[in-house]
Design a protein that fits this description.
The protein is mostly helical. Helix content is 81%, strand content 0%. Helix 1 runs antiparallel to helix 2, helix 1 packs parallel to helix 3 and helix 2 packs antiparallel against helix 3. The chain is rod-shaped, with a radius of gyration of 64 Å. 19% of the residues are buried.
C-alpha cells in the first residue's frame, strides 16, 4: 500500500472516530437534557401540576430514547389519573426501550396492573409472567399473578355460565316460536276445514235448490206435442150503443110494471114487506 493510500485511509478512520465521538457527545447531552426535563416533570407532578408535568415528560421522551424513566413515570402519572389506555402505552414503550432486566420487570408488572384495572385478567396473567421472567424473586408480582389467575378462572366460568344461559334462553325462544308456528298451522288447517265444510254445505244446498227448481220446471213444462193451456182473459164489452139503449129501456119498463102492481095492492089494503134495495 502506498503512503498516499495509507494516509487517505488514516484520515477516513480519524474522521469516523471523531464523528462517533461527536455523536456520542450529542447523545450524552440529549440524555442529560432528557433527565433534567424528567426531574422537572417529577417535581411538577408532586406539586399537582399535571399538565406541566405531562408536557415536560413528553419533551424528555423526544430528547432521548435512553431515558427509560421518562415514559415509565409518565405512564405512572396516567395510571394514577385512571387514564389506563395512555398508561399502558407508556409502560409498553418503557419495556421495549429498556435493556436492564430490572427496568423491564417494572414495566411488565405495571402493564399487568393496567390489565387488572380493565378486568382483562388473562392478559394480566401473561404480563405478570413476563415480569417474573425478568425478576423471579419479586413477591408482589407473584401475588398479583396468583390473583389474576383466580380472577381469570372465575371470569371464564361466568362467561361459560352466561353462554349456557344464553343458549338455553335461545333454545326456549326457538321452542316457543316453533310451538306458535305449529298452533298457527293447526288453526289454519282447522279454518281451511271449516271453509271447505261450509263450501260443501253451500254446494249441497245449491244442489238441492237446483233439483227442486228443475222439478218445478219439469212439472210446469208441457208434454211434447201438447199446447199449453191458455189462461182465460176477461172479454171486453162488445155491446153497441143501440143495444145499451134498448137494454136500459127494457129495465125501465120492467120497473114501471112492478111499480104499477105495488100501487094496485096498496089500493086493496093488503100489507106487504119492505122490498130490499137493489
Amino acid at each position: 500500500m502506498s503512503k498516499i493510500m495509507y494516509s487517505f485511509v488514516l484520515i477516513l478512520w480519524v474522521c469516523a472516530v471523531m464523528n462517533a465521538q461527536e455523536n456520542e457527545k450529542e447523545k450524552e447531552k440529549a440524555l442529560r437534557t432528557s433527565k433534567d426535563l424528567t426531574y422537572e416533570a417529577n417535581k411538577e407532578l408532586r406539586d399537582n401540576k399535571f399538565v406541566e408535568a405531562e408536557a415536560d415528560y413528553r419533551r424528555a421522551i423526544s430528547k432521548s430514547e435512553e431515558n427509560i424513566a421518562a415514559p415509565y413515570n409518565l405512564g405512572t402519572a396516567y395510571y394514577n389519573k385512571e387514564s389506563f389506555e395512555e398508561a399502558f402505552g407508556r409502560f409498553k414503550q418503557a419495556g421495549e426501550l429498556a435493556s436492564d432486566k430490572g427496568e423491564k420487570h417494572k414495566a411488565f408488572h405495571n402493564m399487568g396492573n393496567v390489565f387488572m384495572k380493565n378486568e382483562e385478567y388473562e392478559k394480566a396473567v401473561e404480563a405478570y409472567k413476563d415480569a417474573l421472567r425478568n425478576n423471579p424473586k419479586d413477591e408482589e408480582t407473584r401475588y398479583n399473578l396468583a390473583l389474576a389467575k383466580e380472577l381469570a378462572k372465575k371470569q371464564k366460568d361466568q362467561q361459560k355460565q352466561g353462554d349456557n344461559e344464553d343458549k338455553k334462553e335461545q333454545k326456549d325462544q326457538d321452542k316457543e316460536q316453533n310451538q306458535e308456528g305449529e298452533n298457527k298451522e293447526d288453526q289454519q288447517d282447522q279454518q281451511q276445514k271449516d271453509e271447505n265444510k261450509k263450501e260443501g254445505d253451500e254446494g249441497e244446498q245449491q244442489k238441492e235448490e237446483n233439483k227442486e227448481g228443475e222439478g218445478d220446471e219439469k212439472k210446469e213444462q208441457p208434454k211434447q206435442g201438447e199446447q199449453p193451456e191458455e189462461i182465460p182473459q176477461p172479454r171486453p164489452n162488445q155491446l153497441s150503443p143501440q143495444q145499451v139503449k134498448n137494454l136500459l129501456e127494457a129495465m125501465q119498463n120492467e120497473e114501471r110494471k112492478v111499480q104499477e102492481k105495488m100501487d094496485a095492492k096498496k089500493v086493496k089494503g093488503i100489507k106487504t114487506k119492505n122490498a130490499k134495495d137493489w
